[in-house]
Amino acid sequence: MKLVMIIIASLWMSSCAATGTAGKEDKTTMAQKQADQANVCVVSDEVLRKTLSPEQYAVAVQGGTERPFANAYWNNHDEGIYVDVIDGTPLFSSHSKYDSGTGWPSFWEPLDKNALELIEDTSFGMRRVEVRSKSSGAHLGHVFTDGPEPTGLRYCMNSASLRFIPKTELEKAGLGQYVKLFEK
């Protein structure tokens, strides 16, 4: 029994070590690989490292996850649009945001489902659907089938992959076409 525990611990530690170095050996970021495949504009890793915060880079580029209940937008109730932190593509509206109780900003639908790429994710022994921005390749989060009506979906996003544009700043940000969403 003791030998089995030692073997399991050794395998676990070696898998953790391998996971920690995987991104360091390959200079091509996940976002760049996705963008190359989709034939979209690629922002260099050097530019991304200079323009994104370390947390934004770890989440959006390296596919990480931020901590729940300790991120910028999980409890944001202001009206506006959430855009891709890398290239500014509009992704979600505050109208489809709801409190899922998870500690991450959650939405029941995107502004344009064609702006998102859905990828099967079997990491960590789970079966999930990863959500990426189709235009930049940024890792946004995951989508689950336990959301509210009318879609039944929960787009569980990372704040670090998003930037919020309040409705009062949409025109200035070049997103005037979305102002009508907030007119009553």
TrEMBL record:
Taken from the UniProt entry, a GO cellular component term is: cytoplasm
Any GO molecular function: peptide-methionine (R)-S-oxide reductase activity
Does Secreted appear among the keywords? no
Give the EC number.
1.8.4.12
Annotated InterPro entries? Met_Sox_Rdtase_MsrB, Met_Sox_Rdtase_MsrB_dom, Mss4-like_sf
Q: Start and end of every MsrB domain? A: 45-167
Coiled-coil parts of chain: none
- Broad class of enzyme this protein falls into: oxidoreductase
> Which SUPFAM superfamilies does the record associate with it?
Mss4-like (SSF51316)
- Active site residues of this protein: C156 (nucleophile)
Q: Which UniProt keywords apply?
A: Oxidoreductase, Signal
The biological process GO terms on file are: protein repair; response to oxidative stress
Family the entry assigns: Belongs to the MsrB Met sulfoxide reductase family.
Q: Which PANTHER family match?
A: METHIONINE SULFOXIDE REDUCTASE (PTHR10173), METHIONINE-R-SULFOXIDE REDUCTASE B1 (PTHR10173:SF52)
Query: What is this protein's record name?
Result: Peptide methionine sulfoxide reductase MsrB
> Which lineage ranks, top first, belong to the organism behind this chain?
Bacteria, Pseudomonadati, Spirochaetota, Spirochaetia, Spirochaetales
- The gene from which this protein is expressed is msrB
